[in-house]
């Protein structure tokens, strides 16, 4: 397995698990900090197209590559990674947010799953771990109810109350049932995690899998991020990576969810970040991110 760091916001290279691997020559580093502000949170079409050209220009490698990109504000870059990957493909998405909202511009960290679901080589997108308010009134926020109804999109919250929907005709799925005008979720906090993984492994129909992780799926004990956070334990996430990698061919993976101070040059981005993102402590304990990255990178190194 190869490790690739896209340095978009300065949040990664000083972390001990990455610095150590950089010094040993085990990390491919790309300094993209000049492009970071234009890509962070959301991106205009020409900036995203430029990034896409950069990504597609990188040499293809038969080995799977683990890509680290910094803040979860860059999660929409995952759409470029997956677009260039071989299929047929199942995408496993660990996140406190379903990233299915309607946004303008459309290249946004809160809406990138729409682009992935439009890709012909993606058979299914499985989102695991959300607890966020993006699950409140999902049909009003832009959630792809058609994909959820047909099973191309599966969603398993860590915990969330039933989500009221106005649309009728939504079918039940493995992560939800429809009753009384609401989606009643299968909350994983109340499930046996290993039994859930057993079912997950049996129900994936493709040989190839992409894993994308936003560390805001974890509780604050395991990560400091720019976003509100969920409750998935780190041990559960590591176990999932190892189980999936033991059974399927991981064609690639990416991790985001670092903490990077808000320094938007664009006033609209600055305002959106201030409105949507919780205020970080004055002195966030960023060592927790390094410890979590060590475990996640080690899990991928062991598995791949």
UniProtKB/TrEMBL annotation:
Alphabetical list of InterPro entries matching this protein: Ureohydrolase, Ureohydrolase_dom_sf
PANTHER family (UniProt xref): ARGINASE, ARGINASE/AGMATINASE
Name of protein: Arginase
Species assigned in the record: Labrys miyagiensis
């Amino acid at each position: 397995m190869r490790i690739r760091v896209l340095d978009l916001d300065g949040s990664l290279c000083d972390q001990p698990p990455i610095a150590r691997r950089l010094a040993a020559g085990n990390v491919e580093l790309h300094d993209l900090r000049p492009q970071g502000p234009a890509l962070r949170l959301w991106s205009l079409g020409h900036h995203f197209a430029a990034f896409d050209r950069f990504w597609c220009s990188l040499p293809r490698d038969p080995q799977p590559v683990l890509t680290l990109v910094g803040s979860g504000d860059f999660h929409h870059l995952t759409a470029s990674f997956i677009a260039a990957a071989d299929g047929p493909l199942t995408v496993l998405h660990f996140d406190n947010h379903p990233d299915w909202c309607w946004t303008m511009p459309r290249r946004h960290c809160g809406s990138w799953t729409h682009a992935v679901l439009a890709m012909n080589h993606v058979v299914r997108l499985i989102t695991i771990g959300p607890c966020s308010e993006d699950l409140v009134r999902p049909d009003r926020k832009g959630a792809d109810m058609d994909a959820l109804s047909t099973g191309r999109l599966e969603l398993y919250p860590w915990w969330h109350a039933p989500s009221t929907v106005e649309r009728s005709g939504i079918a039940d799925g493995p992560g939800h049932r429809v009753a009384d005008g609401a989606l009643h979720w299968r909350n994983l906090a109340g499930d046996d995690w290993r039994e859930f993984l057993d079912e997950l492994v049996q129900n994936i129909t493709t040989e190839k899998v992409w894993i994308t992780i936003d560390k805001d799926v974890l509780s604050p004990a395991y990560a400091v991020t720019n976003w509100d956070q969920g409750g998935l334990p780190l041990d559960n996430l590591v176990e999932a990576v190892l189980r999936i990698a033991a059974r399927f061919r991981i064609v690639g993976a990416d991790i985001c969810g670092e903490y990077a101070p808000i320094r938007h040059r664009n006033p609209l981005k600055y305002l959106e970040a201030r409105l949507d993102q919780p205020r970080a402590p004055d002195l966030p304990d960023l060592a927790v991110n390094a410890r979590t990255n060590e475990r996640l990178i080690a899990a991928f190194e062991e598995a791949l």
